[in-house]
Amino acid sequence: MWGFSFWIVPVFSSLVWLGMLLGMLLTWVTDGKPHLASMDPNQSVAYISDIGATDLKPLFIAMSAVTVVSFDLVFIMERWLRHKGRLAHNTSWLQKILSIISIIAAIAGAAGLILLSIFDTLRHPRLHDAFLVLFIAGYVVAAIFICWEYQRLGIHHRQYRLIRMSFWIKLAFIFIEVALAIAFGVMSTKEHYNRAAVLEWVIALIYFFFVLSFALDFVPAVDTKYHHSEETTLEMAAQESALAGDGADGAPGGRFYAPPTANGMNGGYTNGAGTNGYTNGETGAPKPNVPPSRNF
Question: Containing H/E element for 288?
Fold first, then answer.
């Protein structure tokens, strides 16, 4: 069951993100927790963006881009797999619209992270903060709409427990991330930078689990690899019905009536001879009846 499949993409994306966080944090810690140029004088805990504005900026940009690009592919694949019937299919246009909105919001969030990693907090503090808001808001909105889609799917596909489980995971992510984002903003506004920095690291770690949760959604696609989508099945049935309506030789209902056979041969012949209905290979007209000879 666990061969290569779509579930690997969110796992890859989440591990790239986690690897970036650990690499940046451990580098800062092993360097002796230095006070970086972008840090406030009273700040002792570095923000992710503080470390990302150092010589680790290329790493920050590259791994952030890989994370969000691959994660946005997850949203697109989710839509495609449902269309193809590899995942529980959408039962209404509303569900499809919700999925499309989540894709658009995820793309906006991805743009926010890539841009905030480029416009670092040391040289472009205002742009950096604006793109940080875009990043967080984009993925929270994406989570809201895909969670809404899963809620509707769960109503129509009650037999799939994974949909309900995924719904609750994503709903929990929404509430936790929104609460932490508000707390982060309050701490930053009140200049409690150390607390705000800790909250930023926690928000980033929870984002890792959110990305990873999509692997659960793609597990059913492994078992439906060779299944046709509902649309494909209906199209094939329509084509077969159309072909069945055009019968051979004008026969109704698509039935072909072959001439009668005997012993498996066509033409009504017997003994395998094409004799126009006569037996034993006779090809001439039948002999007239004559009285039997009396010369016994």
Answer: none
Q: How is 82-127 classified by DSSP, letter by letter?
A: HHHTSSPPP-SHHHHHHHHHHHHHHHHHHHHHHHHHHS-TTT-HHH
What span, in angstroms and rounded, lies between the C-alpha atoms of 123 and 108?
A: 23
For the segment 170-190, what is each residue's pLDDT rounded down to a tens digit?
A: 999 999 999 999 999 999 999
How many residues in total does the chain contain? 296
pTM: 0.71
Q: Say which residue, 207 or 162, is predicted with more confidence.
A: 207
- Alpha helices for the chain (secondary structure H): 8-30, 48-52, 57-84, 93-118, 125-156, 161-189, 193-223, 230-245
Cα 39 from chain centroid (whole Å): 40
Kindly give, in sequence order, each residue whose CB lies less than 8 Å from that of residue 234, ignoring residues fewer than 6 positions away.
Answer: none
Domains of the chain: which residue ranges? 11-227
